[in-house]
């Protein structure tokens, strides 16, 4: 399935991240954590597909994507930054393996937090956010996506850590074996991982070595 939709508006999130709100096709449904392949409906870009996660609630009247743009090369996300209301995107079938399986710890690297946005928003909206924890690593404090919104979710424990911002008062640690030993006590809980492939692979191995049940670890396969 493939359909073209109009961008309704774009909303700044950080210096290189925006919400893109688009029309919702009739009958188009998803569950929190799922994604679709998106193209820009513009000559020369229709066949350049990139996976983006839905970040709105599943019953929202419109669809939303929260997308980080990379300006160091002329790719899809760089081109997306030039778009605005009235431009069009191509959406395809819904897919994704990051599904909520119960309370646990969500660990993300940078824009890897995006698959967790709809999940946590839905849990918050339905009164089921308590017992969950969000750990996100960013390079600098200004790179944190939706910091105020996550911190306002009553019952969600949030831990930010930075890798290259010594002037910030936030935690300054990489998510490695020592980090997990210091900050994750319950290894029997559910874990949800998303970020750069090497980071996710390392975390899966580290959690396994620490004694976590691999059956309780969810990541985008």
TrEMBL record:
It comes from Devosia salina. Residues 1-101 form the FAD-binding FR-type domain. Gene3D superfamilies: Nucleotide-binding domain of ferredoxin-NADP reductase (FNR) module, Translation factors. PROSITE patterns: FAD_FR. Transmembrane segments: none annotated. InterPro entries: FAD-bd_FR_type, FNR_nucleotide-bd, MRET, OxRdtase_FAD/NAD-bd, Riboflavin_synthase-like_b-brl. This is Flavodoxin reductase. It comes from the Bacteria. CDD domains: FNR_like_1 (cd06196). It holds the Pfam family NAD_binding_1.
